[in-house]
Every structure is written in structure tokens, then in C-alpha cells.
Amino acid sequence: MNKELEMNPNKLVAYLGKPAKEFTKADIVRYIKENGVRMVNFMYPAGDGRLKTLNFVIHSAEHLENILT
User: Fold this and answer.
1) What are the C-alpha distances in Å from 1 to residues 12, 22, 45?
2) pLDDT value, residue 1
């Protein structure tokens, strides 16, 4: 594994061993399942310039697929 990726402060980059721009939905699902992640937070800049957050508690594998799709 690339040492830069292995020591990356982004836990997902370090775990998957590839840069964020190469992540797939399957990669994210695998990470969530293998690491017991129970909540997903999406952050985005809104039209008013403020940072907004959407929080989702993961109820099932199907729910996770819906959230990420």
C-alpha cells in the first residue's frame, strides 16, 4: 500500500488505500459494515453560504443503500 495513503488523516482513505476521488458506493458500504458505523452525516454549503448537515441513523443494509443512492 502507498505510504501516503496509509498515513492519511482521512480514515476512509487510509482504510481503503485509495484517494477519495476513486471511492465507489461499494467501498463506502464495505467500510461502514466492517467498522460498525451507525450514523452517516452529509455536509454541504447551502445557498445562504452556511454549512448544512443531514444526519442519518443506519437502520438496515437496504436503508444504507437508499441513503447513498
Assistant:
1) 14, 15, 33
2) 59
Q: Is the pTM of this model over 0.85?
A: no
Give residue for cell 498515513.
Answer: 7
Of 61, 53, 69, 6, give the one whose Cα is nearest residue 32: 61
Block residue for cell numbers 436503508: 63
61 CA to centre of own chain: 15
Q: Are 61 and 25 in contact (CB under 8 A)?
A: no
Q: What is the pLDDT of residues 5-27, one digit of tens each?
A: 877 888 898 899 999 999 999 99
Residues 66/57, Cβ–Cβ less than 8 Å:
no
